[in-house]
Specification:
Elements: H1 4-35, H2 39-53, E1 65-66, E2 78-82, H3 113-123, E3 125-129, E4 132-133, H4 139-145, E5 150-155, H5 157-169, E6 174-181, E7 209-217, E8 222-228, H6 233-240, E9 250-255, H7 270-285, E10 293-297, H8 336-348, E11 355-358, H9 361-364, H10 391-406
Parallel strand pairs: 1-4, 5-8, 5-9, 9-10, 10-11
Antiparallel strand pairs: 2-3, 6-7, 7-8
Helix pairs in contact: 1-2, 2-8, 5-10, 7-8
GO molecular function: O-acetyltransferase activity
Organism: Coccomyxa viridis
Protein name: Trichome birefringence-like C-terminal domain-containing protein
Length: 424
Amino acid sequence: MKSRRARIQEFHRSTIVIVAIALLAAAVAESETALYSSSRKLAEVSDIDKAYLLPGEVVQQRLRHKCRGIGQFDQLRGEWVRHPDHSYNGMTDPAKCPSFVRDYDCRADYIDQNYHVLQQKEFRKVFQPYACELHSMNTTYFSECLQGQRIIIIGDSTMRQVFQSLACLLTDHVTDGYLVDWQDAKPNQTAVPFKDEYFVRGTRSPILKQNVGMFRLKNGVQVHFQSFGIFNLTLWDDVMTKFMPLSKNDTIFVEFGAWYPRFSASEMHAPWARYKKDVLELLDMRLRAYSANVLWRGYGPTHFGGATGTFTGMNWELEALPAQETCEPAQYGEYYYDTEVIKYLTKCGEFCAHIHILPVFHLSLPMHNSHHGSFGRGIEESAIDCRHYCANVVDTWNQVLYNKLCYQPTGKGKLLKLQTTGRY
């Protein structure tokens, strides 16, 4: 007869399968009915979801060329391979990063030897797309490519990681900068005082204002950053006051999603319904009308267990299982955050040609061992962090950004207008 623990584990596995199937069915069905009414349009929406889950076509090594002209919706499917240099340990050295960069360091000196071995294994990997070969990061050219541009990064704490990674990658070209908690920001650093309150849609829950940052390059390029986990249109407008007027020389780099779980034990479907409304409002009422280029960063999939990486609990009546001690692989990942944006942009057409997806979802999906939680963050508090990635993954996001902005037929720093399929 099976033990109670064995029965619970069996229930756990069965629940994961059921949740995964329900997620896939619900995501497609909800998206179809929400955006389109005709059967033809329904089929198109369904195809977007299905296409996002299909494996990429593998191109023979001898035919692979340098990536160039990554299009509006292009995805970078590929694999992580070992770097030929045995001493390779990632693109950045945390000891050489600007002083204001203070992200969790997966390369810290560990008491647990297993973490050290895992770190060496994970940071030895480099991402290799199937269709083309990414240009290696050349920070001097990156700095030149951004000449005359202003980068405005807005989003949740995963975008803070993007900001810090950029500063580390460009450290030889950074003249000055800062990253502070919003409550410590000076009046000239943000247009929004910390004491001002903004609320989550449909609630009286105040939105947490997180960080404010900026760094400047030797050639005058400025990279700005402000983070708040949940979108609010009034808060967005107040934050953007500092950056007005916008021009074609501005690039807004944005993403929200970490604070919008697809299913929530306390709120069930409410956060996901809120996400769809918030993102539609941001895209439809602001981003499509801006003269600036817009990059929507692809979603960074979580790895909390289950087919989509979101399984974090089970029936409240059952005795609690041991806390999760490692980040687990996910078969599908939370693809629906990206496809929700793509469906809107597809419908919007040429009016949204200046809004592109930065394709980082597929490259992040297999990297469950490169989360902060994979190196112990949150385990002691039974709140393992399988959302934030280590520098090896976030630096690769910015390598894709470098390829996206600096290797376009339209010129340095310019996005491809009206191009929905890239040339690679």
